[in-house]
Each structure stands twice: as structure tokens, then as C-alpha cells.
Give the backbone structure.
Amino acid sequence: MFEVQLAVGFLPIFFIVLAVLLVGGTVGMFIFLNPIAKKVYEEQVVRTSPEKFGNECTYQDNEEQVRMWKEGLAFADTIKEKKQPVDITNDGLKLHAEYYDQGSDRCVIVIPGRAEGLMYGYYFDQPYWAVGMNILAVDPRSHGSSEGRYHSLGHYEHRDLDKWITWLEEKHGIRKVYLHCICVGTVTGLLMAINGSKRSNVKGIITEGAFYHFKETFKEHIKYEGKPVYPFLPMCLYHIQKNTGARLNEEAPIKLVKQLNDMPILFLYGREDIFSLPHLSQKLYDECSSVRKKIVWFDKGAHSHLRINNQEAYDNAIKEFVG
């Protein structure tokens, strides 16, 4: 009887000690790994120097990216006489863009993905110029010649976009705006369409490589970089939300597309995309509420490398969508 009582009395003590060890181990692991997670977060969304997120080819070792970059520069050179550099201010930040006017009452704004500026967008401007549309090539905040320290994954950028659309209306009488959103630029475009004061001016959204939820695409990026998903993923997401203002759950594309209603939207996807996984991309499209939605799949082409591998089909899809 004494041995049984001793064993029963020992159990609470055992679990208390175990809990202390587990908590202590977790805290120790956090203290050890947090600086690494913070560095990963800074690499992704913090402009730590004027050169970072500048207007230069981001992936010099990627042959397709270099080709896209050079073709974009060559295209911009052919229309340089139409270029009007412009700066506006929003949230106390100077924002830079280039406006290319060919006399149309329609304009496209290409919203680059994270770490890319307006010169990267040159490559994606081409099919719109070919159908007679004007172009506003923007440097998102904290990119290129625009000021800012953080990329907030669309949270603040959509307010900048709203101001750009106001500028187009007031300075050039533009009433029809199309948004070409690359990767995380999709959040910017969707938030603008849903919350922007000039929503009636936005006549269509084109998304390229739109992710389902930032958590999902960031997880794939961590795996691609060869880092362990856990505990880095939740730790990095914590730093992003704490420091940038991003609301990753509330502003996830899977939630935003359910609020589009009658907004026309074109989804462009590649089956070889390893960051916006095809099965989640299809689900994003399926759950989109727009009554005027379309999805186009390309068998070849990595994330945001669709046009370079399928130029005719890609350009035709955009031509058909914008009319």
C-alpha cells in the first residue's frame, strides 16, 4: 500500500518536472533560433540598404529571368519617348513611377512581386501596350526609387495603389484601369479592388502566380532555400506581422477573392509552379466569388515565368480578357 501511495504521489511531481523541462527547452530553442528566423524575415521583406530591392535583375544566375529582364529593357527602350517620370507622396513616403501615354482612355498598372521594381515589370507591360493601353510602371514602396523600409505584403501597398489610380484620373482623365498582379502583388490588387476609394475605376484584375495564403507560399520558399519549415515558418510569420503591419490571415487571397462579386478577374497559372502549388491555385479560383472569372493554365513555366515560355498563348489570353 505504501509503494502504491508513493507512486501516485510521485506522478504530479513527475509531470511538473517534465513540463518545466519542455517549457525550458522551448524557450531555449526560441532564444537560439529567433535571431536566425529574424534574419530570414529581414531578407524577405525589409529593405536594409538602398541597394536592396533595387531596379536590377534579381536572379542573375537564372537564365530565363535574365532573358525576361533584357527583353523588358529592350521593349522600354522602344517607347522611351512616351515616358513621363512621376513621383507622388503617400503615408509620408515618396513613391516613384513611369507613365507611358499612347492616347488611350485605358491604363494598366503592373504590380511586381516582392523584391522587384518597375523595371522588372517592363517585360509584363508588352501585351497591354500592343492592344493600345497606356502603362503606369510603379516602384512599390521600399522598392526601386520609392521610399520605405518594409514590404507589408499588400497591407499598405494597396493604399499607395489607390493614390496612383487617383493620380491617373485627375492628371490624365483615365477612367478604366487594369491591374496586372504578380505573386504577392495579388494581395495589393485585391485589397485595392475591394477597399479602394476608386474601385469603380478598376475594370479588371489579372493575377499571375497568385498564392492561396502567404503561409503556404512562404513555406515552399523556406523548403526551397533548404531551411527547416518548423520552427522557422511560425517564427518568421510572427516577425512579419509584428513589424510590417501585414494581416496575413485577414488579407489572404483565399479570403479576398470571396469578396469580388462582379469584378472581372483572370487567373494565370503554371503547372510547374513550386511556390503557388497548382492544387491550391485551383482551389483559389474555385472559391472566387466573381461571376466574371477565368483561369488559364500553362503546362510550361515556373513561378512568374509563364510568358517567356508561352508568349503567344499568354498574350492572347490577356488580349481576350481586356477586349
In short: The beta strands are 83-90, 93-100, 106-111, 134-138, 176-182, 202-208, 265-270, 293-298. Residues 1-11, 13-26 have pLDDT under 50 and may be disordered. The chain has one domain: 46-213+249-322.
